[in-house]
Amino acid sequence: METSIAAILGLLPILVYSISLAASGYANNDNFFRCLSTHSMHSLIPVYAPNNSSYSSILTSSIQNLLFLSSKTNKPSLVIAPLNESHVQAAVVCCRKHALLIKIRSGGHDFEGLSYTSHHVPFVLLDMFNMKSISINVEDRTAWVQAGASTGELYYRIAEKTSTLGFPGGLCPTVGVGGLITGGGYGYMLRKYGLAADNIVDAQIVNVQGQILNKESMGEDLFWAIRGGGGASFGVILSWKIKLVPVPSTVTIFEVSRTLEQGATELVHKWQYIAHKLPKEVYIRVPISKVNASQAGQKTIQAQFQSLFLGKTEQLLALMEQSFPELGLKPEDCMEVSWFQTMLYFSWLPMNASLSTLLVNPFRVSLKGKSDYVREPISKSGLQGIWKIMVEANNLEIALTPYGGIMSEIPASTLPFPHREGNIYQIGYLAIWNEKGTMAAKEKISWIRKLYKYMKPFVSKSPRSAYLNYRDIDLGHHDFMNDTSSYAKAKVWGSRYFGNNFDRLVQVKSKVDPDNFFRNEQGIPPVKLSASVYS
Q: Which interval of the chain is the signal sequence (predicted)?
């Protein structure tokens, strides 16, 4: 039976079906909406149920991985789109009171869709897209940014105010700031200024009791945990106070592509020895993919050397001639632009892109991601083995991200993100496809798994480290249908994402959310504190 809860309560801006939660095993939904109203100061909360005409568009608008647009994907019983802090508080208090699993979505870029799906368990989606205000303070070089804002919006607002300040955020302009920072996100200034999370001054979070906490009131441990430990395990991030960093008014970028026939293997091999040792101001990333060869009908591998240098072309050319002359960098390869324009260029956007352009992801595809960390250069024969698999596969890409610089200076325990000194670069793997159906997905995923298996001898060991923001469900996950969150199970993937910091994250979780209200399939589990676990 269709019921107008808005008519009953006079409080909610949309209609919902009374069966929307009952079908998920929860029948007393009138009490749930009455709870939302009471705890939101009686202000209107946008709530969307599956029968609402806007439900589908709201749900799918931030699904960046089209793999999870499948009809087989478990969808939320409700989508709550808070307009202010009280709405978030109400959602947390009422979902907890009525034993409803809550998922939190910022920009929707979770590789495994864990911010907006759930494995066979009914849930409510708290979608933060309405909370995206940005306040820039040029004088004290800080900004407050709400969790629903995208990195593109942030960069645009910074550029409106100044050309000599920036932020070391993500590579993709549609990534949500909330998830970027909690997962240890980084950008083209990684080697100069570290992670986005390394540049956080303060934060606001709604805890399991529905209270709003800042850095002082949440305490040192929780403030540590949310900066790289996966914030969705600890509460709902409302906003971050970020530190803006100095950038020259003019920086230099280049992109030089080489195929195997043009010496790509030798260049990538040499890159491994020098990229992490260059001055902090130089960042040279290497995306690698399969392309058409010069010979008709043949395929080859192409390496793109993409660089941001925090300085002028003349200085960069001198550095490259000294450290990496094999690349053959020329003045005409270089472009002097503003820092903001580099973000547009490397996102394949026009240099005069409008804010609205930055809010749309034109490259939404189905994908599967994985990651690795490399501590010793891979031999040429090892690289050739990678190329062989990539040529055989279809739409398999990798990207090499150089470390060193400030990343080698920050201790591994400073934040939950442990991948610091000793790592010379990170590898991101992507299988990408546009075909629909499970057969296409299985084929593409099988190729990335094959490459990942091949890479085992060449990457970090004990544990084989992984990057949280390239989430990989293959590493293991909680099963909420058949068991509770297990410390032993979570340790398997937790040690790979967080290294020796995993146990401290468990300690924090056990203190601030002992009943595991904030949870996802790869979340931090609480346990009873014991010397045996933490020794």
A: 1-18
